Amino acid sequence: MSSRALPRLLQTPAVVLLLIWMLVPLGMTLFFSFIRYVLASLNRPEWTSPSFSNWRGFGNYGFVLDSKDFWLAVNNSLFIVGSILFLTVALGVMIAVLINKAFPGQGIVRVLLISPFFIMPAVNAVLWINMILDPVLGLNGLAVGGINSVIVDLKDAPLIGWFFSLWPQLEPISFRSSQNSAYAVIMMVTWQWTPFAVLIFMTSLQSEDEQQKEAAILDGASLWSQFRFLTLPHLGRPMAIVVMIQAIFHLSLYAEIEIVSRGNGNKNLPYLIGEFANNNIGAASATGIFAVILANIVAIFLLRAVGKTLME
Amino acid sequence: MGRIVLENVVKNFGETQVIPPLNLTIKDGEFAVFVGPSGCGKSTLLRLIAGLEDTTAGKVVIDDQDVTEVSPSKRGLAMVFQSYALYPHMTVRKNIAFPMRMAGMDEAEQNKRIEAAATALNLTDYLDRKPGQLSGGQRQRVAIGRAIVREPSAFLFDEPLSNLDAALRVGMRLEISEMHKRMKTTMVYVTHDQVEAMTMADKIVVLQAGVIEQVGSPLDLYHAPRNVFVAGFIGSPKMNLLEGPEAKKHKAKTIGIRPEHIEVSTKSKKGAWKGTVGVAEHLGSDTFIHIHGIEGCDPLTVRAAGDVAVKHGDTVYLTPDPKLIHKFDDEGLRIS
Questions:
Q1: Does residue A6 belong to any structural domain of this protein?
Q2: Could you tell me the residue range of the domain that residue B129 belongs to?
């Protein structure tokens, strides 16, 4: 046996296991996406079991592309992921910088800041949509109602009453509606994932070189310049990590979308797959392949963009 | 211009006073070195001058202007840090340009100064590299370049050579000295290495526990140390300090004799000290002999010129030069 054969042989089980792990699900998805395969059909009972005799070629892909929700789902996936990434990174940097300086109660504040991350996604969604965003019983409805009643009172006030009498009655926003459900999802996921960004940025800020800052102070850099030219580049790498990990997680959001609006006007690809999978496994598999392609495009795009602008 | 005056400067960290009231004047164009053991407050003093630390009391005056409340960047000083403190994601060019960019200087002037600094510091070929791709010595040069382009009234160096290896340190030491001779700008240099202090300084400030033990030219400190601490700190190898009967003969609590002021002989001599060789370090140009068995100082070090053929266990006779014996009283102060 040559000197290389033995290490290769010893690696084989792990490599084979990993390949099976990856390739079997992918292969089955590919196979299902090319055949007619449904869970129940009274007219065509032969389609209810996967078989090559039900071959449909790219028919499932055509069916998915033509379905009215596909492009909505793709756009929505990107919109939701992009918005969450932008908000969590921006908020994360701001909060991390804010709590980086020592102050009394720092430990408790940090624990409180991290705590949203420990809540289950479904619970998070239920809490937000019912207790905060509900237009009648949630904070949203109560706040708008409160403002309205204050305005009504002020209309009778002397001198300034005429000004408030011009004000319209405010309406609470309905976040379950098809126009707004995506924003509700973005809000709740941002709330939950900002702590993750804060945590990573916070640890990174602690490793920032103090002498560099002092040198910058002597060089006449303002606080903003220190942030812009020292802190922000220092956070480049952790930002890339936060963006990559969150992109992977948020492309597969499901619970929040289900709970907010049951996909009404606000589907993403995983949700669309779920809808197809109620019966049409073939179409669900084809959508799954589209999701894989989308995820790869996003990953490559992000790696390039993040790598170029921040890691240099 | 670059005249720095400290008037009754005090620094407290919480309850502890690290610098008791201290007065010091550094003249324009002078190379002043703060030297002392670690924790003696020399870096704190430098940071007080730079404005990176606030004074608890007292005044910092630069060029007859009270700058105690002036922000660090407005004091017209440039500082070179021990860790170089380069901005890691910027190229050498951008690092050097940074202070000028912050001051809003125009591009043409910036480039002119960068070119001049790069030529002076041999950095022309490295302008487009990142600090991570440079060696320690090159990084130190970039840090100096970043200080030069600001054309400050004084340079502050905070142990700039301690992260370099021994050979580079000697080279950079010469470069900084030469830079000072050329530019004639005030420089304040902090080090714990007395060799650096002796070789570079116009004026050495020896500090211990925040207190100035002595201020003077290197040779003043060498020939007339004000107290036992300065005597032991300045000079390499260290001065031998003897207590007991030998010191009593000179009517002193402690006497000090430098290793190079002792004559060593293997033949018996009248009035000489007798001892046994512990270790003899043969350097070729010199021989450092560490001798045991002399009362009041163990081991006693002798520096003999050239190669002296002694080895472990040999008996030797030592004759100190009586004119060069330093005498100190009960409080450790020099008796002259």
A1: no
A2: 4-231
B169 with B286, same domain: the answer is no
- Asked if A294 and A64 count as a contact pair (C-beta separation under 8 A), the reply is no
Report pLDDT digits (tens) over A138-167.
898 899 999 888 888 888 877 887 787 788
- Work out the percent of chain B whose per-residue pLDDT is above 90: 57
How crowded is residue A251: how many other Cβ atoms within 10 Å of its Cβ? 19
Please indicate whether, in this complex, the C-beta atoms of A229 and B52 are within 8 angstroms of each other.
no
Query: How distant is the Cα of B102 from the closest Cα of chain A, in angstroms?
Result: 6
pLDDT of residue B259: 92
Nearest to B85 among A212, A233, A236 (CB): A212
Q: Do A218 and B79 touch (CB under 8 A)?
A: yes
Rounded to whole angstroms, how far apart are CA atoms A291 and A272?
10
* Residues B20 and B68 both lie in one domain: yes
Contact B214, B206 (CB under 8 A): yes
Q: Which residues of A32-51 are buried (b: 16+ CB within 10 A; e: fewer)?
A: bbbbbbbeeeeeeeebbeee
> How much is the pLDDT for A205?
93
> In which domain, by residue range, is A239 found?
36-121+182-310
Judging contacts by C-beta atoms under 8 Å, the chain B residues touching residue A217 are: 52, 72-73
Taking an 8 Å cut-off on Cβ atoms, the answer to whether B98 and A216 are in contact is yes
Q: Does the pLDDT at position B2 exceed 90?
A: no
Interface with chain A: mutation pick from B53, B80, B81, highest number of A CBs within 10 Å: B81
CATH classification at residue B294: 2.40.50.140
Residue A18 pLDDT > 60, yes or no?
A: yes
Q: Are residues B87 and B195 in the same domain?
A: yes
CA B31 to chain centre: 11
End-to-end CA distance of chain B: 38
- Same domain? For B86 and B200 the reply is yes
DSSP 3-state of A163: helix
Whether residues A236 and B102 touch (CB distance < 8 A) is answered with no
Residues B189, B316, single domain; the answer is: no
Quick one: pLDDT band at residue B260, thresholds 50, 70, 90? very high
Give the residue from A117, A78, A76 showing the smallest Cα distance to A95. Answer: A117
Tell me the pLDDT of chain B averaged across its residues: 90
Q: Quick one: residue A48, left, alpha or beta (phi over 0 = left, psi -120 to 50 = alpha)?
A: alpha
For position B270, what pLDDT does the model report? 76
pTM for the model: 0.80
Q: In total, how many domains does chain A have?
A: 1
Is residue A311 scored above 60 in pLDDT?
no
What are the C-alpha distances in Å from B109 to residues A292, B95, B141? 54, 16, 21
Interface test with A, best of B89, B95, B129, B149 (most A CBs within 10 A): B89
Residue-wise pLDDT for A188-236, tens only, equals: 999 999 999 999 999 999 988 889 999 999 998 999 999 999 999 899 8
Residue ending a domain, among B231, B258, B287, is B231
| pLDDT digit string, tens, across residues B135-154 | 888 999 999 999 999 889 99
